[in-house]
Amino acid sequence: MTEVNKTLYIPLYGKALVSRCGIILRDKKAEAIWAAAGFPLGAKSRSKWLAYYMGMRAAVFDAWVCEKCACEKDAVVLHIGCGLDSRAERVNAKNAWYDIDFPDVIAERRKYFKEKENYTMLPADVRTEAWLYALPNGKNAIVAMEGISMYFAPEELKALLSRLAERFENVFLLMDCYTVFAAKASKYKNPINDVGVTEVYGYDSGEEAALGTGFAALCERAMTPAEKINELSGAEKFIFRKLYAGGIAKKMYKMYEYEKRTV
Length: 263
What we know:
By secondary structure, the chain is an alpha/beta fold. It has helices at about 5, 10-20, 30-35, 50-70, 85-90, 105-110, 155-165, 180-185, 205-210, 225-230, 235-245, 245-250, and strands at about 75-80, 95-100, 120-125, 140-145, 170-180, 215-220, 255-260.
């Protein structure tokens, strides 16, 4: 795998850890995959604080996708940059679901997941447009892009969003992004450095990230909801609020909800 693709093991470890602890996210599949994969992560990537953060972020994405699937029953779900995540199983929606990632990632994924009715694993480089032709014709799409926008150069991200907006009449998108400051700081101190990644990109607003793509930024979403923080113990709850849910964290990492609707 490339260095960027290896970053998938960081959230996998986080989800496995919180699931084993019985907090934040229930994900037995992540536990099993992590135990089988045995990927060597550095100390920063194995931080329990980062694991809590990864678990909370995943839980927010899960809840959003579940909500959208309930409202948009005919929409196709596109989980772009799925890695080894088991969101399709956790959400268990009836919508047609596509887990999409680079061919080497999907090859690894096939060791642990099986395709079935309404569930497809699609090997693709989404920086191209060829993969879009493998999708069924449809009016609506629900798109989850968790933990991947920072690896796209701005022109690559805008091209991807533009193609999605052109391909579907209505698109509902949730995407997390680094800020410009966080992207610069990541060259020197970030868990992704453990797997050799130093070049990432950031935006200072949701509008900036999707400018000119056909998407409208609706709102910023919290990645560390209070009800999830409250699942931590007393001392950990206090520390997490200060380090990962406080002002500094909010200046570095954002989550935006977007829509592209055909009037």
